[in-house]
Amino acid sequence: MGPMRVVIIGGGILGTAHALAAVRRGHEVVQLEREPEARGATVRNFGLVWVSGRSATELDLTLRSREIWEEIGGKVPGVGFRPAGSITLVRTPEELAVASAAAASESAEARGFELLEPERVRAINPALRGKYLAGLHCSTDAAVESRQALPALRAYLAASERYSFHAGTEARSVTDTGSGATVLDDHGRAFTADLVLVCPGAAHTGLTRELVGTIPVRRVRLQMMQTAPLGEPLTTAVADGDSFRYYPGFAGPEVDALEREQSQTATAAEHRMQLLCVQRLHGGLTIGDTHEYTEPFAFDVDEAPYEHLTSVTEELLGRKLPPIVRRWAGVYSQSVDPAAIVTRAKADEHVWVITGPGGRGMTLGPVLGEETAELLGL
């Protein structure tokens, strides 16, 4: 098949990853984004490329996605790719049991797992001067700059002269034409395409519902914050033992025992919390997060989770945090079926809706774009 014209609706990481996959295969891409700039989960996350917690069935895809991110980072420095790894710090015997099992698992070598004594943790990440029993090091984890990655990727795609981006453009309708599809926007323009990919993020209503009805996805809300510059390098991403509860890569009897122990604080349990912490290129720390699944979601943020995150981070760092300069909430789309990495719903022969990667959208975006291209014969 020769070059195709692909229209992508949605300017987040999933839409942009699909644009990247199509352009790399020689196709022409038009991408529409209803906001002046993507404002959803893509820019409200940690920027983590998180290998450590992915399930065994997702591991190969995740490692491939990391390869693509590293390749992109070499070509597009603006995405801020850095292979910093991560350390999950454990503070209880039950958490230590989970970390020990992970370090001894069949996939430990592929993930780059190693269980470290506190002295070795500090040798790798000297900023971690606080209290903990051990650290599970994952050398394959990485990070990108979530707020600058997409503009950098779009500039890279535009240089191909086969890509155009239309900000402040809302797609109002998608009509099958028999041999392709036509997208009408809110400026009265029509875009013809051989293939239309709708990547709506957490916008499950409106055009998404018109095209494919109700699909098996739900929305998840989180709260996060960012500090002023730390004043010293945090050489790896950092997680706490509560994170073991939320990632399928750690599932097993040790996590079951951890859950039975009910060692989470009341705030962490109520808000289904974990600590993840990443240093941005400007030196500040992005810290989170919470998980809320029942709608309607509040329009404001709750202070108790921030107090918990501050306390845990300070305990692990062994120092006071710099001032908090930003707090925010975000909502992402998650497939209801835990075995589904993403939900692809076919509207007709030439139109697909793709959403629901959950909190792994930044991690898996590039490989999901490749996978869709293979599935649809791009």
From TrEMBL:
GO terms for molecular function: oxidoreductase activity. Keywords: Flavoprotein, Oxidoreductase. The keyword Flavoprotein applies. Coiled coil: none annotated. Pfam families: DAO. Residues 5-375 form the FAD dependent oxidoreductase domain. The keyword tRNA processing does not apply. One of its GO terms (cellular component) is cytoplasm. Its cofactor is FAD. Belongs to the DadA oxidoreductase family. NCBIfam families: HpnW_proposed. This is FAD dependent oxidoreductase TIGR03364. It comes from Nocardia amikacinitolerans.
